[in-house]
Amino acid sequence: MNTRPFKVLSIDGGGMRGLFSASFLDGIAKLAADRFGHDISDLGKEFDLIVGTSTGAILGCGLASGIALREIVSLYTNVGSKIFPHQLPQSKWKALIQNRQKINEQGDKALRNALQNAFGNQTLASMYRKRNIGLAIPSVNCTTHKAWVFKTPHDPTSSHRDDDYPLVDVCLASSAAPIYRSLAVVKQPGNSSTLDLFADGGLWANNPVLVALIEALRVADPEQGIQIFSLGTSAPPNGSIHSPEKPHWGLKEWAFGAKAIELSMDAQTWVTSEMAGMLAALINREINIIRFPEPEIPREHAKLLGLDNTSSQACDLLIRLARTAVDQTNQIINSSAADGNLILQLLTGNIRK
Question: What is the reported pTM?
Answer without folding.
Answer: 0.93
